[in-house]
Please model this.
Amino acid sequence: MKDRSTLGNIEFVAGVVFYDLISVIWFKSILFRCLPGMTYYNSKFILWGLLVCTAILSTILFRYKKTEWTKAVAVVIPYGVYTVIAYYTTVPLIVISTLVVGTLLSFIYIAINLTRKIKNKRYAKQIIKNRIYRCLCVSNCIIGIVLLIMMLSLGIRGIFGTTLQNASVKPKAYEINSSQTITENIDTIVSLKPNFWDKLDVTEKLNVMQTVANIEVSYLGIPHEINVGTANLRENTAQSQIMCKHDTAV
Model:
């Protein structure tokens, strides 16, 4: 198989490691969050493990295609994999859509590449081997691209202070004779009890908290909506963040 690399082994690995060290600062400040059910330090350990493993595996996979492009893919993929695991329960639609698109595009490329007619039957085995290798490399690049798009989408939300996920319950401002009372929403309020609350997923918890916020708005006579959403807080922060949407200052 012809080596089409433009970088040597040491240059490729050194580049991946260098960009990993630079990008981890950005990732940690914007997108990093603990993995479900894991501590902060265990989550960091897994992230670094993904970075190291990907650097090694990429050197093996891209041994005939060590270029600036494949080096970028080797940097993006571990962060993308970590993001998928960390954000799956919070923004499942975005994560699932990303995986579906990446998988679908990869399968389309593989199908087109492997079903092409082989003109030179004499070298059929080598041609098939080359095509399989090319499919592996291109599929990794495709997955890297869609994962990068997903991370940029989530990162932009973090940079501009928007929430990662909002409740499906509509936020409401104060209205006279409003139905937003404890009595009218007692079935939802009961979910705040620990034995119920612990069994709820993120979306269900958001809906409960949005209902509570609507009740508070009604009781306090607040003339604007209070939107409840999820966001990444800095480490060691033990508080919830409520974002208000209003036309006038309070």
Summary: The CA atoms of residues 34 and 40 lie 5 Å apart. The helical segments are 9-30, 40-61, 68-87, 92-114, 124-159, 186-189, 194-197, 202-220. The radius of gyration is 24 Å. Confidence is low (pLDDT under 50) at residues 238-250.
